[in-house]
Amino acid sequence: MKNSSSLKIIHSKADKQSDSIINTEGFNVWINDAHILEDINITIPENKITCIVGPSGGGKSTLVRSFNRINDDIEGLKIQGGVRFNDSDVYDQDIDTALLRSKIGMVFQKPCVFPKSISENVLFGLQYLKKLSDIDRLEIVEENLKAVSLWKEVSHRLNNPANSLSIGQQQRLCIARTLAVKPQVILMDEPTSSLDPVSGRAVEETILKLKENYTLVFVTHNIQQAERIADHLVFLCDGKIIEQGPVNKLFQNAENSRTREYLKNEFCDC
Amino acid sequence: MTRKSKNSFFKIFCWLSVSACFGTLIFLFGVIFLNGIPAISLDFITSRSSNFGSEGGILYQIVGSILIVLVAALLSFPLAIGTAIFKSEYLNNRKWKKLSNVLIFGLNGIPSVVFGIFGLILFVNILGFGISWFVGSIILAVMMLPTITLTTFQSINSIPVIYRESSLALGLNKWQTITKVLLPQSFSGAITGLFIGLARAIGETAPIMFIATAFSGVDLPSGIREPVSTLPTHILALAQQATNPAALQNAWGASFVLILLVMLFSTTALVIRIRQLSHQRL
User: Fold this and answer.
1) Which of B109, B116, B71 is nearest to B208 (CA)?
2) Burial of residue B265, with CB atoms counted within 10 A of its CB: 0-12 exposed, 13-18 middle, 19 or more buried
């Protein structure tokens, strides 16, 4: 699936070299009568960190939650236009949403561990996909906890309840749990905003390590954080894309004055 | 009235209310306890009744009561869980949600004697089932259904959305999310509802007196189409012979045993509830 040379994907002007893995064309979302997202054309480059920034209530969460269709159950949701992942239409009627979500994982704002042991949490998304031996299980638990730098802290107590961990550790466990399913893309909806600064930094470092193997889409309202971790930046305000492109270009030489204003003063008049 | 006197007025009112409640409860328990204890003996709870209940014990009544409510629970529990899951997870439309509430509360509000007449007409007259404890279990199962459904629904519905989303985001489908995430977390709530339902059902007289029980000369049932005798219907029969002191004595004894069974179910429900709450806080 990673070889996307056969795909016909519209590249954004700013990002011609990299292959895109998710893109939307004229994508609109309404919830009841509120027009949440308006004519969104966005390109998510593969194996990079794309940060979506913008003021609260601008539709950032709605946008990433549309990529894996986790918004489907919301009452009064209407969509128009397409979201493409690899070469398939995410909103195709025949698509298996469970399979889609195992390819596009998601980490939420508030860590939510299941009331089970640490290792059971890592394996939670996996055990239904295939039968595993005990050794396989332990290997997967170790591999994924190491990937989020949690292994040293918890290796001696894998069978302890996951809610005995600190909030920051819980959030890294949630990332490990998502990695275990082996997704291609991981959507992160403000994953550090409910954490203390130290835990937040630990999660950031984890995320930077992950970009070799995964495509990350990271929603944040913290501009400094976006500058630290992003390769590609999308500025979303009031349901519209104002500008998108490589992070350096947007921070140093944004085309749109509203982008410059927002990235400099965290203020958006749109 | 000054602010201060208003304040103390409401405080006194609350104290009086709680005293009235507890007073009534203690009075009732006291009367049943004082009158019931002299009737209770090992012989009383391990032997069968004779002479229309005024002699002998209440063994078959205890067995009959427990049999009829346990089978009712087995019939009702899966239906209640299914209804609660449907109501919480599949019913998205606000109008349908309201309608489902009306239906469930409506079912809960039907007087128990109406259930008895309904059972008599449907099972005994139309379907020709005869007097059968199993028919009694079916009717009690329908009566317990709203209680168990609502308790289970509340405990499923109180699980934060993020648990559902976290599970779905890991690629589990809706059914896996329900069985692996929601049901384990709400199971103790469902069991609480089950025991509350049991506590209510075991004391019911009207729904089963026409269709499931006989008042005297009953053996342990050997099939599902036979009547049993139960504690509440036995108490009813004994109370009709109130001029006979021996019968009245046995009525008090049977009441005492019935109250003990109800309290057993209620406290089990309470203990599970408290455990669940303290577990959630961890």
Assistant:
1) B116
2) buried
**How many Cα neighbours within 13 Å face the side chain of A82?**
13
- Contacts of residue B139, Cβ cutoff 8 Å, sequence gap at least 6: B115, B116, B118, B119, B207, B208, B211, B212
Given its phi and psi angles, is residue A108 left (phi above 0), alpha (psi -120 to 50 degrees) or beta?
beta
Q: What is the pLDDT of residue B279?
A: 67
**Is residue A153 within 8 angstroms of chain B, CB to CB?**
no
Residues B59-73 have pLDDT tens digits of 899 999 999 999 999
pTM comes to 0.84
Of A227, A177, A179, A168, nearest in space to A203 by CA: A168
Q: Which of B166, B180, B186, B279 to mutate to test the interface with A (most CBs of A within 10 A)?
A: B166
Q: In which band, very low, low, confident or very high, does the pLDDT at B94 lie, cut at 50, 70 and 90?
A: confident
Q: 10 Å Cβ neighbour count for A253?
A: 9
Quick one: closest CA in B to A125, which residue?
B170
Chain B partners within 8 Å of A105 (Cβ) = 169-171
Three-class DSSP category at B107: helix
What's the rounded mean pLDDT across residues B215-224?
A: 77
d(CA A173, CA B144): 42
Mean pLDDT of B228-249: 88
Question: Which residue's structure tokens are 């109180």?
Answer: B158
